């Protein structure tokens, strides 16, 4: 009898996956997640999927929601989501991505933020209207890591510190950069990865979700589980979502976010202007739309992702109404303004953004066109062009769209 082929990961799990570790021997459930999933199915034991969040702010945006969407997918597949509210670790602050020591929050601030996070994730709402399923028995555990971290005594803390070295800590990019530049690193910051890793021990995690910037912390959880005699978790990492500018990561401090609490019209209007270069990432990470059915036109892809994401948050009826309202608003604004036309007949396609401006005679040279784009003075249908090398494949891609230079020049592109 031929041997059965090794198990493979289901499509819902592979979607958007940036990194999975370990990823070794196909039939070993400690080295291959597909084998661990098959083992869990045979034994009738759902996996425990850990996601930790430190409530250091009050708002969740779409960039954060990528991890929650994957956690929900595990829930829908019958596994147990273990959502850890880092009420203890938030008071230290994750040093990941930070060039200076973070300001420590009070316990009251952290708890208030945690309440707003849970409300945005769907606490008190039916599963079909929530990012996470808070209702179905066995699908969700919400834990606060103060449950186990606040009671650690000094010998236990010393044991944790003894599991790693200063050299290992300085392998973390942010610590290495700060150490190399002479920027102070407080000793309590070294505790953060250890305490976050100890969370995996406390909840007996089978798999931890994180962004690609969290690999060090997730791997620390594996190391500590081994130290305490547990079966090490898998690490599943997802990409960092670019913001609405299409360049930098989505971040409230950069002003390029879409918040979960935003209304349907505001959400849709922002999303339908996502730069073409990142539209596929938004479709992959923030929707369940089948790539085989994605629209071919970049403009139609923008509309499709905006409609799907808004519907996922507010329902299909509200999203459709927002799409219609957005179209009416744009039509009204354009009708109120006399927009002269400029022909695309003199442009050779495919064309890069900087070449388009010079070919249309709007800039005296390609170098001037580059400067105008890099200076933020060029918009297409109200969305800032930020990439001088953005490609436009055909005139049909630009037909009817409004090109804006500076504050006063508006031109409608015609074939």
Low-confidence stretches: none
Mean pLDDT reading: 88
Number of helices: 16
**Order of neighbouring strands in the sheet with most strands:** 1-6-5-2-3-4
Shape: globular
Largest sheet: 6 strands, mixed
What is the rounded distance between the termini?
64 Å
Order of helices and strands: HEHEHEHEHHHHHEHEHHHHEEHHEEEEE
Strand content: 5-15%
Radius of gyration: 25 Å
Query: How many beta strands in the DSSP annotation?
Result: 13
Could you explain how this protein is built, in words?
This protein is of the alpha/beta class and 415 residues long. The chain has 16 helices and 13 strands. It has helices at residues 11-14, 33-43, 62-76, 107-121, 146-149, 154-161, 166-170, 173-181, 187-203, 215-227, 264-271, 276-286, 298-314, 316-335, 353-359, 366-374, and strands spanning 19-21, 48-53, 80-85, 140-144, 207-211, 234-238, 341-343, 351-352, 378-380, 383-384, 391-392, 402-405, 409-414. β9 (378-380) and β10 form a beta hairpin. α11 packs antiparallel against α13 (298-314), α12 (276-286) runs parallel beside α13 (298-314) and α15 (353-359) crosses α16. The radius of gyration is 25 Å and the shape is globular. The chain starts with 10 loop residues before the first helix and ends with a strand.
